[in-house]
């Protein structure tokens, strides 16, 4: 162990001040626990500076422009392209110029103690922190340690990749310039959103993937996004594998397995993320809830085999989304306080205050491409695996509200029904700006609203929400 300069004790220690760590620390302080939050980089985490916020800021102006182009009357007023520099500058402000003063102020006002530096566990309830200014610091937790360390990108095993500089999502979301040409590896959410954003900012983009584009999404929804990418001249290459990659003064050269060589100024690798568990000292603690790669927790976030360690957000590996991680954080924070106060014995209860039930049955997520895909709950396949008797209903989105919204609006919607219980258990909407439709479906699923009651939820005329009525009519209501 390195020489320890200082030492202090709190009720709780939270490692990682991303959106999830901030939320769990807030709940703990509100529950009366003195809480230390430790952050190695910027308070606010990946989401604020290199993920959700900057990526959505890169995407949004292109969507607004495309919408205006899709309407007779406003189309005629457009006489230029996106101003890439203005988009990048607006993005900078959404990433707070990569400074965390605003978040620091929030932490201080919330009554949370903060220490900067990289933290790891050296014993149960004992954390060592390499504070860049104060030196090595030791922090003890009287009650609990919460891991909220997020996730790290996974890098594919492409020969040559380790020897060259390449963009990950961090570089793509924070780049001060738009490359002339960009190769994107990965057909998931991050790769697809960023491929379209950069194409609209003026780059010539090819997106390559070993499987299909957005493979987990229903086919009609994937098809709409593929058509949207094609309109933006993104060259899609599905089902390819990579022989090697290199870089020289002309740029990046990517050789495919069939011998074809693609060249571009820059390459973005967006091939998924994995929980950030490796540098936390977990292996030495020999926890039954840690297998070397993954933590196993109960539905309140407590790591199996311990009574003092919790994991929330990306590091817990259940759902890698900000809003769901923050939901886990609220439940875990409240569960910790309730356990200490003797108000919670640890028994999971579906939809109970201390059980992360939505992680299993009602995770909403949006692919912020143009058109968007918004999905919540279970797919037909997943519901069938769960042994549910499924009824599925789907339709193109073609209602008065959608035709008014955009000329030639192309969309698709699907509901997945538990036929025995007569309730919705999954929904997907694909089309321009469907993200705001999603919460209606989330509420219907979480509320387990019977279809014959949902029949009385009348969508306003003329809105895109009228698709709800068409879907219920198709179900025979
Ligand atoms: C390009 C991209 C776009 C995305 N867009 C969206 C979106 O639109 N909507 C959405 O819901 N999700 C989105 N996500 C996912 C979202 O970013 C994550 O789910 C979210 O950031 C997870 O929050 P977290 O607090 O668990 O982890 P993080 O945000 O990763 O925060 C973890 C924090 O812990 C700190 N840390 C790690 N180890 C230590 C240590 N040992 N000591 C001290 N500090 C440590 C890190 O520095 C970091 O600040 C996106 C992801 C990517 C990559
Ligand atoms: N709008 C949003 O909510 C949003 C946006 C971006 C990212 N995210 C989250 O961030 C996380 C990371 O996003 P992502 O798109 O990188 O992950 P992902 O898991 O969605 O997609 C990964 C892609 O990389 C491919 N891939 C994986 N390993 C590969 C390999 N060895 N060689 C070639 N291809 C490989 C996969 O086939 C897939 O196409 C996801 O969990 C996602 O939920 C969310």
TrEMBL record:
Its cofactor is FAD. NAD(+) binds at residues 186-193, 272. One of its GO terms (molecular function) is dihydrolipoyl dehydrogenase (NADH) activity. Disulfide bonds join 47-52. Keywords: FAD, Flavoprotein, NAD, Nucleotide-binding. Transmembrane segments: none annotated. GO terms for biological process: 2-oxoglutarate metabolic process. Residues 363-468 form the Pyridine nucleotide-disulphide oxidoreductase dimerisation domain. FAD binds at residues 56, 149-151, 314. Residues 11-324 form the FAD/NAD(P)-binding domain. Binds 1 FAD per subunit. InterPro entries: Class-I_Pyr_Nuc-Dis_Oxidored (IPR050151), FAD/NAD-bd_sf (IPR036188), FAD/NAD-binding_dom (IPR023753), FAD/NAD-linked_Rdtase_dimer_sf (IPR016156), Pyr_nuc-diS_OxRdtase (IPR001100), Pyr_nucl-diS_OxRdtase_dimer (IPR004099). It holds the Pfam family Pyr_redox_2. Belongs to the class-I pyridine nucleotide-disulfide oxidoreductase family. This is Pyridine nucleotide-disulfide oxidoreductase. It comes from Psychromicrobium lacuslunae. The lineage of its organism: Bacteria, Bacillati, Actinomycetota, Actinomycetes, Micrococcales.
